[in-house]
Design a protein that fits this description.
Elements (H helix, E strand, L loop, with lengths): L21 H18 L2 H23 L6 H24 L12 H27 L11 H37 L5 E6 L3 H9 L6 E7 L9 E2 L2 E2 L7 H7 L4 E4 L6 H12 L4 E4 L3 H6 L4 H4 L20 H7 L3 E5 L4 H10 L6 E6 L2 H11 L6 E5 L5 H11 L3 E4 L6 H6 L1 H21 L4 E5 L10 H17 L6 E6 L2 E3 L5 H10 L4 E3 L5 E2 L1 E3 H14 L2 E7 L5 E2 H11 L10 E3 L21 E2 L5 E4 L6 H16 L3 H10 L14 E3 L2 E3 L3
Parallel strand pairs: 1-2, 1-5, 5-6, 7-8, 7-10, 8-9, 10-11, 11-12, 12-17, 13-16, 14-19
Antiparallel strand pairs: 3-4, 15-18, 17-21, 20-21, 22-23
Helix pairs in contact: 2-3, 2-5, 3-4, 4-5, 11-19, 12-19, 14-16, 16-17, 16-21, 17-21, 21-22
Length: 671
């Protein structure tokens, strides 16, 4: 379905509402889990199958002799039973029967079991004949042909019964779990199209707790009033309006991907008058041609790509509530990925105003419209942080008490091409905001930095390191404003990050492009990044650097392959990975601490750490910023890079193409 159908697992154990029963319920659940693990273990499966072989053999003998087994055949039964068990179980093991999961037994599993039984029966005939030839003539007693004919059928029936029983028991358990998960009323879903797509959707939704299938709609007269997958075909598309109202339908899904567009539009018009939600599945052609990929059918959660658990603070953190309640909070870059998520999360702390500042009017407008849906005191400001006079006007008029500075140029290759813009936006813009915050008595200022600021090899990273120094310089000047910096790695899913680029390449059927097989980066989700920023605002005092324990850095190529697999595709078969070479300013790995930063200590938040700010010469920092601004005004990229090298920030110059050259599909040139 093009609209994602999410689910949650909120199973509540029986008796959980009564605290006195919790120990008993917990013990019963543990015993139940242990019993299930034992009952459905490989050893237990072998034991059950072995017992059924013995029972089936005995039944075959008694059936052959109408329930009165001659004494001489008792001995034969006792001798033949262990041989049959070894042969039948051994054949099962050899043919991989026990690699099958009983609760998912299917027709193909039954075929494999039948093949195993046929082969084992052939071996049994050969072995029993050999045993008889080795005995004296007086004691020789052939196995009755009736036993050899009926025995394999009894074994097959018993084994299939055991597995089908397990599947039925699992289905009942899953149904109970789904019903328990349905804490809120389930949405009634009407499926238009009782063909292969509709049936596939019904089977997929069998595991989902939030939907209840109302039935099918189909124009085929042969299907009218009949049942498919247990759900009735309620009528034709001409009756859809009345069916929606009669069966209290909440959502309609169109499962007729081969239908002409005008047919779909006609059905949609009929549904729109009822006010129900409408979604559709893509056509097979769209999937094959790459217009719609598997990732659209199976949305990839950013958290699943991290390789670690996500970090989150409690929904109602009293410390954060105390910090932000009633404050006038200004967020720069409020239309961007980080800025917009910041204002989404900050509104839960009941600030008196949220001031959203951005120079991109479209992004700002969209963010403001979203926030105002449930938080009215929002003020939007179209302004550029590079304009000092404009920033001071905004501060003078709105008097923010908390500032989150998220506005920045962040794309490494672009800033290598336009170093002057990196200085104006990242350095000058930060200085303007710092000075305005000091002048107008802002209580808390949080600067959002990056791990690329540590021993930078790019203009973007170096400009962010200088911006950190501007913030730390202000913090050491005895100001009343509590300054802090937040430094984290790449943000999954943000605009311009690798994941949206990879997803677009998968969608269009192109190879995923990775710069180098050894490139590694620290990653976090947008939500994690914003939580770190908000927490830093409640902890910062004197220019501290706040870090997130993001685990081990992840190889970009591993991230790409993981994304391909989670999209339902096969790396190297459905989607190739190509290496294009490092771009200007890029390095193989990132770091989190500048040389000399020490005193790392934990905070009140798990996995959030703090490094003390370095001691800086205020005049040297101010002089460096002034020189960088001169170089930026002169559009002198070489001068800017030379100043970075003199600043002792670990900056290393990487070779940048000196002429306009074609690099893939983008033009790279030197300023």
């Amino acid at each position: 379905m093009r609209q994602s159908l999410g689910s949650q697992d909120n199973t509540v154990p029986v008796g959980a509402s009564d605290p006195s029963l919790l120990p008993v319920v917990g013990a019963m659940e543990k015993i139940s889990q242990v019993m299930k693990r034992w009952f459905y273990s490989r050893g237990t499966q072998l034991f059950l199958d072995g017992i059924t072989v013995i029972v089936a053999l005995a039944v075959s003998y008694f059936n052959r002799f109408d329930g009165s087994l001659p004494q001489e055949y008792h001995t034969q039964l006792y001798l033949l039973a262990p041989v049959a068990v070894v042969l039948y179980l051994g054949t099962n093991l050899a043919l991989g029967v026990y690699r099958q999961v009983w609760r998912f037994v299917s027709f193909s599993d039954a075929v494999r079991i039948l093949q195993s039984i046929a082969f084992a029966t052939l071996l049994l005939v050969i072995v029993s004949a050999g045993l008889q030839r080795g005995m004296p003539d007086a004691q020789r007693l052939d196995v009755p042909s009736g036993v050899l004919l009926t025995f394999p059928f009894f074994v097959f029936g018993a084994w299939i019964t055991l597995r089908v029983f397990r599947r039925i028991e699992y289905g009942k358990h899953r149904l109970r779990r789904i019903m328990a998960n349905s804490a809120s009323p389930r949405k009634r879903l009407l499926i238009v199209g009782a063909g292969a797509a509709g049936v596939a959707l019904v089977r997929e939704l069998a595991n989902r707790s939030e939907f209840e299938i109302a039935g099918f709609i189909d124009d085929d007269p042969r299907l009218q009033r009949r049942k498919i997958e247990g759900y009735q075909v309620l009528g034709s598309t001409e009756e859809i309006h009345d069916i929606i109202e009669k069966h209290r339908v909440d959502e309609v899904t169109l499962c007729i991907p081969s239908a002409p567009r005008w047919v779909l539009e006609s059905i949609v018009r009929k549904c729109q008058t009822t006010g129900v939600k409408i979604s559709t599945v893509p056509s097979l052609g769209e999937i094959v041609l790459g217009k719609v990929t598997i990732s659209r059918l199976r949305p990839v959660e950013m958290e699943s790509l991290l390789g670690r658990s996500c970090i989150a603070y409690p929904a109602e953190d009293p410390h954060l509530m105390e910090t932000y309640r009633g404050q006038r909070i200004l967020v720069t870059g409020a239309g961007g990925s980080i800025g917009s998520e910041l204002v989404r999360q900050l509104r839960q702390f009941s600030p008196s105003f949220l001031i959203l500042l951005d120079k991109d009017e479209n992004s700002l407008f969209e963010t403001c419209m979203e926030i105002r849906e449930d938080f009215d005191p929002v003020i939007e400001v179209v302004a550029d942080v590079r304009d000092r006079d404009r920033i001071f006007q905004v501060f003078e008029k709105l008097r923010p008490t908390v500032v989150f500075h998220a506005a920045a140029y962040k794309h490494v290759p672009l800033m290598e091409i336009h170093p002057s813009e990196a200085i104006f936006n990242n350095v000058t813009g930060t200085r303007n905001l710092v000075e305005a915050s000091q002048h107008f008595g802002v209580r808390t200022f949080v600067f959002i930095s990056t791990d690329k600021a540590v021993n930078p090899t790019s203009v973007m990273g170096a400009s962010k390191r200088v911006a950190e120094m501007v913030v730390q310089n202000a913090a050491s000047s005895g100001t009343r404003t509590r300054f802090s910096c937040v430094r984290f790695g790449n943000v999954l899913g943000s605009r311009g990050s690798v994941i949206p680029i990879f997803q677009r390449q998968i969608k269009t059927g192109r190879p995923i492009t990775v710069t180098h097989p050894e490139v590694r980066r620290f990653f976090m989700t947008i939500s994690e990044a914003v939580q770190l920023v908000i927490q830093a605002g409640s902890l910062g005092e004197r220019g501290e650097i706040f870090l997130l324990d993001m685990g081990e850095p992840i190889k970009i190529v591993d991230l790409a392959r993981n994304l391909i697999e989670q999209s339902g595709l096969i790396p190297g078969k459905d989607v190739d990975v190509q290496f294009t070479g490092l771009r200007p300013g890029e390095k193989l790995y990132e770091e989190l601490l500048v040389n000399g930063e020490n005193g790392i200590r934990s905070t009140r938040y798990p996995k959030i750490f703090m490094a003390q700010a370095l001691s800086l010469d205020q005049e040297s920092v101010q002089r460096a910023v002034a020189e960088l601004e001169v170089g930026a005004r002169n559009q002198d990229g070489e001068a800017i890079r030379a100043i970075f090298q003199r600043l002792d920030i670990g900056y290393q110059v990487l070779k940048v193409p000196s002429m306009a050259t074609e690099r893939g599909s983008s033009l790279v040139y030197q300023t």
